[in-house]
Amino acid sequence: MDLFEFLSHGFVQRALITGSIIAVLCGTLGVFLVLRRLSLIGDGLAHVTFGAVAIGLLLKVYPVYVAAPLVMAASLGIMKLIEKARLYGDAAIAIVSSFGIAGGILIASVAGGFNVDLFSYLFGNILAISSTEVVTSLILSAVLVFVVMLFYQDLLSVTLDEESARVTGVKTRLINRVLVLLTALTVVLAMRVVGVMLVSALLVIPPVTALQMKKGFKGTIYIACSIGVVSVVLGIFVSFAANLPTGATIVMLNLFIFLMTLMYKKIHSLR
Amino acid sequence: MSIDIVSAENLHFQYNATEVLTDLSFSLKKGDYLGLVGPNGSGKTTLIRLILGFFTPTRGTLTLFGQTPSRFSDWHRVGYLPQRIVDFNPHFPATVKEVVALGLLSRKQFPKRIGRSDNRYIDQALDLVDIGNIRNKLIGELSGGQQQRVFLAKAMVGEPDILILDEPTTALDPDTRERFFNTLKALNRDKGVTIIMITHDTGTIGKYASKMLYLDKRIIFYGTFEDFCMSQGMATYFGEFSQHLICHRHDGETGSGRI
To answer: Residue B158 and residue A161: Cβ atoms within 8 Å?
Structure first.
């Protein structure tokens, strides 16, 4: 099959569009999360997504519709644990994360019969994305990008230093909630691309790679988004050509770009 | 009659049933320069955090521009330079200009935008602390002294009436520290900016500040540096030798050259 024939397939077009959108969202939010040392929140919320998908499959409701509100609630739960119970962020994430995955396993075990569907969410199936999912992703992505643009300066301020941000009148609690809610929505959208197990990779690796390049804050976001899009697009082609799982291929390409960047920096510093 | 910029009356603060601050009363007017000194754990940073509304007093009253800090909303009147940014990542990707611009957010309405019209204020703040030549550098690429001046520019860019600084000179070498103190003194003298500075360097702050507040959970001393150096109470509290060391270590002969 040549490239044009490959691109003419609807499922490939849907995968490319949705995957690129998700990569842009993950790259944007990921820069804020990594710098705020909340990298693991993507992983934790992905585990909650697993439980939410199990509920959706059990109730025979489109899993994204169940996962979105539940994972958003879980993200607020993490913030509550950090603020009210004075837990460290990683401990709060671990508690909510283990609750989500244990719940998912219990539901899958009790209900039975939908384990195959559950596995497609666990490991992602970007080539099976439906037109409805493309439209849902587009709408939610537009909302997310709009909200990030509205709160960009506040997000940057809180990311630099929360205390100082508060003294410049930034409503830090609101901004923290906006950030985790946007992350929750992105995780839910991204689960079809790389799967629940690997979703945090898209949130973390492109931003960490971009941070190596030292190009200013907006520059870092643009680079993170670009790396994400390149790895998703290449991942779709490579996985199709080599008959490999797409989600894992995308993550491996991300890692490859990260390692190449580190090597380039090392060689450059030796000159 | 002008209102007090900061006023505390019989202020108490407990944290987890431990009395951290006991019965503090003091006030600051426009143009005051307060050196807030005291040993570790004396409650200096807690007092700052109460003024900024991060904590609520257990008893007593505390006002900022006549309002309780929890109700205060004119944050453009306050510039804050924290002790050190706890989670500050030395590889933070923002440029100096991007960081300083964040100090203008207190003057912005939602949705907050930094535009070309803000460049004038940013340039002024950068020039004020003499770092206009590094405006496009990444903050992580700067020395500790330069970073500190960037954060001072950020605190100053909104042209606040009061500047609150928590141990701002800890990471600075002696020359940079001297320049930093002179910059602050000029702001205080020329623009009438009220300053509260926490420091462990009692002798140095005495040279610049108009008032000293020595804190050790309660107010041990509140007055001018001259009074501090001549106070028999302080001689008893510190021991005469220590008081002499604090007061007579500058300008070769005497602490501030004023005694």
So the answer is: no
Residue B38 counted as domain residue: yes
Please indicate whether, in this complex, the C-beta atoms of A167 and B99 are within 8 angstroms of each other: no
> Could you report the per-residue pLDDT of B32-70, keeping only the tens digit for each?
999 998 888 899 999 999 999 999 999 999 999 999 998
Q: What ipTM was assigned to the predicted interfaces of this complex?
A: 0.84
Lowest model confidence (mean pLDDT) among A51-55, A73-77, B5-9:
A51-55
Measure in Å the smallest separation between the Cα of B254 and chain A Cα atoms.
37
Q: Tell me: do B219 and B233 sit in the same domain.
A: no
Contacts of B98 in chain A (CB under 8 A): 156, 216-217
Does B115 touch chain A if contact means CB atoms closer than 8 Å? no
Cβ distance of A220 and B93 shorter than 8 Å: yes
Residues B241 and B143 occupy one common structural domain: no
CATH of the domain at B52: 3.40.50.300
Q: Considering only the top CATH level, what class is A3-265?
A: mainly alpha
Claim to verify: residue B52 and residue B128 sit in the same structural domain = yes
Q: Which residues contact B44 (CB under 8 A, 6 or more apart)?
A: B36, B37, B38, B166, B198, B215
**Domain range annotation of chain A:** 3-265
- How far, in Å, CA of A181 to CA of A186, rounded? 9
Sign of CA dihedral B124, B131, B171, B201: negative
Split at pLDDT 50, 70, 90, the class of B29 is: very high
Q: For A214, which residue in chain B has the nearest alpha carbon?
A: B93
Beta-carbon separation of B52 and A167 below 8 A: yes
What's the structural domain count of chain B?
2
Task: Residue B209: count other Cβ atoms within 10 Å of its Cβ.
Answer: 27
Domain residues for B234?
A: 229-259
Task: Give the Cβ contact number of residue B56 at 10 Å.
Answer: 11
Q: How far apart are CA B15 and CA A103, in angstroms?
A: 38
Residues on chain B touching A161 (C-beta within 8 angstroms): 82, 85, 87-88
Give the model's pLDDT for residue B256: 43
Indicate yes or no: CB of B98 within 8 angstroms of CB of A156.
yes
Structure tokens at B200: 């462990």
In a domain, B250, yes or no: yes
**Of A53-57, A115-119, A127-131, B222-226, which gets the smallest average pLDDT?**
A115-119
Cβ of B52 within 8 Å of Cβ of A166? The answer is: yes
By C-alpha distance, the chain B residue nearest A31 is: B93
B29: exposed, middle or buried (Cβ count in 10 Å: 0-12, 13-18, 19+): middle
B21 and B145 together in one domain? yes
Q: In Å, how far is B214's CA from the nearest CA of chain A?
A: 25
Task: For residue B150, give how far its alpha carbon lies from the nearest alpha carbon of chain A (Å).
Answer: 13
What value does the mean pLDDT of chain A take? 89
